[in-house]
Structure formats: structure tokens, C-alpha cells
Design a protein that fits this description.
The protein is α/β, with parallel strands linked by helices and 390 residues long. Helix content is 34%, strand content 22%. The chain contains 14 helices and 18 strands. Strands 1, 2, 3, 4, 5, 16, 17 and 18 form an eight-stranded mixed β-sheet that branches. Strands 8, 9, 10, 11, 12, 13, 14 and 15 form an eight-stranded parallel β-sheet that branches. Strands 6-7 form a two-stranded parallel sheet. β8, α4 and β9 form a beta-alpha-beta unit. The two termini are 27 Å apart. The structure holds N-(iminomethyl)-L-glutamic acid and fe (iii) ion.
Length: 390
């Protein structure tokens, strides 16, 4: 038997093991036992079993590690100039992706890797213990292969997004580019990836093109997820549901039919508040979605164009302040919701048998995540039972 580490005197423990109406499964004065990287016991501090090591949480709050199910962390350059122009009134457009493609193609593996590792550290310090990473800033076979290979060094949740936008050299030849994506590019990238994604949106890929990309990925054993309805309503959500996608991401502009279809499906809707913040688009009404029975996840969508934050607490604060979510719902969406969007049943919940991915907050309750926006409240993070912060 390995070392047993007990974290006790947890003032508020968010387990995400639903208890009647309480989807957060909140426990007071709780304790968690960790053994061999897994949670082996959860209960009242007064009933806690013996352990080799005991950590006193001093009445603070603990939540599951954040599961950030949508990011684009492998890229070169930044687009601060574009952000400033947007703040001065310019509109966000999908075409900006191409400038990051040029900078990414020009970067070496080591440059991209350094950056990637930096973002991961930044995320960990803010409580994120699992992250999904997409390619999509290479858009040629060799560079896309580099991006998924680098992502696979750090996470099993790798998404091939060769169909992010049509690159400049294929201007007005979108179908020819899709031929490349579903052909040589998929051949090169599929061995490193778990997921296939497409940006199904005006200015990116049409519904028939998106269907080709997703079906080709599925045929290669990749599971689908879809970027859709970010810039306006479209048919991407219906396509995602039809193909059994794990998640449709963005969903800023959803029709009533989209909401009905999502509610009746296993497809999670992943909301990305950092995008609306950074593009000055309207925040989606999460209340409408949750009340309709849609499973909602929250993710950062860290990328240099539409959302250059890596902070899940920041996204939670927006979701609570501007999207109609309770803090309990927002924390659930950023943990259990993200796990569901990645079809993972070993993370996002604090219960025996789950991975010991935990966050101790420097606060008495999880409400402080939204109540104290911008304040670093993460006191410690355990990933697979190992404390990761100094
Ligand atoms: O998720 N929507 C498409 N892709 C990214 C934005 C990429 C960019 O602007 O560079 C997103 O928002
Ligand atoms: Fe994205």
C-alpha cells in the first residue's frame, strides 16, 4: 500500500457528487484521503481515517481541479494590436487566424514548446489540472503534424483542427483545402490525436465541408467536437448533434431549435466567456441553456486571437456576473462539465476512485472565485495526488 495523505478541516468541499438538488455535492468540515494518486476516501473530518501525512486546510474551500476542455496553446506570436483595434470598435473576424499561422510556421519546435510549457504552468497556478489542446495554426501538413505532436507531449486530450480556417495559399479553393485536411494532413495528425474538430462558421468552413472533415476524422478513429455559432447562428450545432459530437463550443448565437436538439443529446455545450470578453460580443445566456436541460461546460479557449486568458477563475467570474450562472453551476461547468465534454469519467469529481486532482482555495467558499475577480485565490493544486505549487 502506498503513502496515505489526508487533507482535513476543509471548510467547504465541492465534490460534484450530486446530492438531491445540490449538483455540487457540497460537504462542510470535510476530509479527503489520497492514495497512489487517487482519491480513496471522502467524508466528515471527524470520521477521517489514519494517514501517513496530514494536511490541515484550515477551514478553506476545496474544489476539483479545473478541466479546461478547449484551448489552442501551440502557436507563435500574439495579436495584441488586433485586440486594441477591437477595443476601439473594430469587429472580430475569423481571418485574423491567418496572421498567427504565419508566426507559427516560422517558429521552431523549441520556441513553440517553451511557450506551451509556460501556458501550462500559468494554468496550473490558476487551478487547471487537465487541458485539451487543439492544433490549427499550422494549416499545412508538416506544421499541423508538429502542433499535434507537441500537444501530445503534455496531454492525452489532443485535437486535430486542420480545418480551422482556409489558409491564404488556398484562397477561394476551400474544397481543395478540405481535400488536403481529410487526406495527407489527417494521415499525419491522426496518430497523435484523440479528437477531430472544425470551425463551422461563415468565413471558415461550410456545413458540407465541416461534415466531410468530421466524418473523415471519425473514420480514422477520432471523436468529433465542433466550433460553431460563434459569430452568428448556423447549422453547426445540428451537425454536431447528428454526428454525436462530445461538445459544440462557443454557441454564442443559438436558435431555439439548437437548444432543443442539445438538450435531447449527449453533446455538451462548451461556453467560452473569454471570447465574448475579448471580442465584445454579447455573452450567451447560460441560464436559458441550463433551464432547458443542456449540459454546459466552461473553458478558456486560450488563443492569441479571440481569448488570450488562461484563467478559469476569470471565466467563472464572467459566467456568474454576466451569463446567469450560479457559482455552483459555474464551478461544476469548469470541472465536471469539462470532464463530460472530454468524455472522461476519472476527473472533475471528488469521490473514491477518481484521480486526486484537487484545488485548495485561499477562501472559505467557492463563491469567492466570482466575488473576488482577478485575485489569485489558488493556494495549492494536486495533480494525481502530487502537490504542484511551491
Ligand atoms: O476558438 N473560433 C475559432 N478559433 C478560435 C479563434 C482563433 C483566433 O482568432 O486565432 C476560437 O475562438
Ligand atoms: Fe477555439
Amino acid at each position: 500500500m502506498g503513502e496515505r495523505m489526508l487533507i482535513t478541516n476543509i471548510g467547504e468541499l465541492t465534490t460534484n457528487v450530486a446530492d438531491g438538488d445540490d449538483l455540487s455535492g457540497t460537504r462542510r468540515d470535510a476530509a479527503v484521503l489520497i492514495e497512489d494518486g487517487l482519491i480513496s476516501w471522502v467524508g466528515d473530518a471527524d470520521d477521517a481515517p489514519d494517514a501517513d501525512e496530514i494536511l490541515d486546510a484550515e477551514g478553506r474551500a476545496m474544489i476539483p481541479g479545473f478541466v479546461d476542455s478547449h484551448s489552442h496553446l501551440v502557436f507563435g506570436g500574439d495579436r495584441a494590436v488586433e485586440f486594441e483595434a477591437r477595443m476601439a470598435g473594430q469587429k472580430y473576424a475569423a481571418g485574423g487566424i491567418r496572421s498567427t499561422v504565419a508566426a507559427t510556421r516560422a517558429a521552431t519546435d523549441d520556441e513553440l514548446r517553451d511557450r506551451l510549457y509556460g501556458f501550462l504552468e500559468e494554468m496550473l497556478a490558476q487551478g487547471t489540472t487537465t487541458v485539451e489542446i487543439k492544433s490549427g495554426y499550422g494549416l499545412d501538413v508538416a506544421t499541423e503534424e508538429r502542433l499535434v505532436r507537441l500537444a501530445a507531449e503534455v496531454t492525452p486530450e489532443v485535437t486535430f483542427l486542420g480545418a480551422h480556417v482556409v489558409p491564404a495559399e488556398y484562397a477561394d479553393r476551400g474544397d481543395d483545402y478540405v481535400d488536403l485536411v481529410v487526406g495527407d494532413m489527417l494521415d499525419a495528425c491522426a496518430p497523435h490525436a484523440k479528437w477531430i474538430d472544425v470551425f463551422c462558421e461563415t468565413g471558415a468552413f461550410t456545413v458540407p465541408q465541416s461534415r466531410r472533415v468530421l466524418e473523415a476524422g471519425i473514420a480514422r478513429g477520432l471523436a468529433p467536437r465542433v466550433h460553431a455559432s460563434q459569430l452568428g447562428p448556423g447549422e453547426g450545432v445540428q451537425l454536431a448533434v447528428e454526428l454525436g459530437a462530445a461538445s459544440i463550443d462557443h454557441g454564442t448565437y443559438l436558435t431555439d431549435d439548437d437548444v432543443t436538439a442539445l438538450a435531447a443529446s449527449d453533446t455538451v455545450l462548451t461556453l467560452l466567456p473569454g471570447v465574448e470578453f475579448s471580442t465584445r460580443q454579447p455573452y450567451p445566456d447560460a441560464r436559458r441553456l441550463i433551464d432547458a436541460g443542456v449540459a454546459v461546460a466552461l473553458a478558456c479557449d486560450t488563443n492569441p486571437g479571440s481569448s488570450f486568458t488562461s484563467s478559469m477563475p476569470f471565466c467563472i467570474a464572467i459566467a456568474v456576473r454576466d451569463m446567469g450562472m450560479t457559482t455552483a453551476e459555474a464551478v461544476w461547468a469548469a470541472t465536471a462539465g469539462g470532464a463530460r465534454a472530454l468524455r472522461r469519467d476519472d476527473i472533475g469529481v471528488i469521490a473514491p476512485g477518481m484521480r486526486a486532482d484537487l484545488v485548495l482555495l485561499d477562501a472559505p467558499t467557492r463563491v469567492h472565485l466570482a466575488y473576488r475577480p482577478g485575485v489569485p485565490l489558488v493556494a495549492q493544486v494536486w495533480k494525481d495526488g502530487v502537490a504542484r505549487l511551491e
